[in-house]
Amino acid sequence: MNEVTAFWILAAISVIGALVAVRKRNLVHGVFALLVFFAGLAGLFLLLLAEFIAVVQILVYAGAVGILILFAIMLTDRVTGKDAFRVTSRGSFWGAIIALAVFLVILLPTIREIPLIENATPKDMIVEQSSVKELGTKLIEPYIVTIEVLALLLTAALIGAVTAAQGGRASEKGENTE
Amino acid sequence: MTLALHHYLILAAVLFCIGLLGAFSRRNAVVVLFSVEIMLNAANLNFIAFWRFGTNPELLHGPLFTLFTIAVAAAEVAVGLALVIAVYRHFRSVDLESLDTLKEE
Question: What is the ipTM of this complex?
Fold first, then answer.
């Protein structure tokens, strides 16, 4: 199987996965379609020789984010499979129009520049050295401050998430005892 | 036919607009949140494609930036879902159209 076939298969998987995730009435089925989308995108990253990013994509998105969203659905909607009576919002027609307009705005410059970028061929990577090792050294040397800020951000986000999710409990208890 | 940069760019544009469509047209807050995730992933695909077809792939700017984006997106999902749960506690609903307390009637 050559590269082009693989690209079209993976592109079809991710587009169909994203479409089903966005349009499906049943939220749980939607999340499973989302997982398919994440997996297809990981395949595309692999096709672009970014193997570490592909693995991170599987780990973070298909693993953590998917499970997190599933839990959020189970905590908020009773898992009946039936969403609200009306799925789409009031302005959904105009939303679709705007999405289409944005799509054209993004697409037209790309199509106009196709003659320019067509002959941009990917360079042959040095295969002897694993790019993961290279990525590690690059990550430490110029970006050490960014890494530290990111670590701080993740810690703050987790603490904030726990606080926000727990916040209502105290007042709710108070209401119940009244 | 060989794969060129614009294949990836057009695919990313399609995925981004599917995410946009979901964020604009769904009522459920969780669906809106994962539509935003689809949009972020489309942007990541652009980063990687530009890195692969760009002039200096040995600098690894594309994967590095994508790693940072993924980390920030993970933080965003955690906080966003916590907010969805907090909103559900308060309003007993995640329907975005019923969250109109700030609107003057």
Answer: 0.91
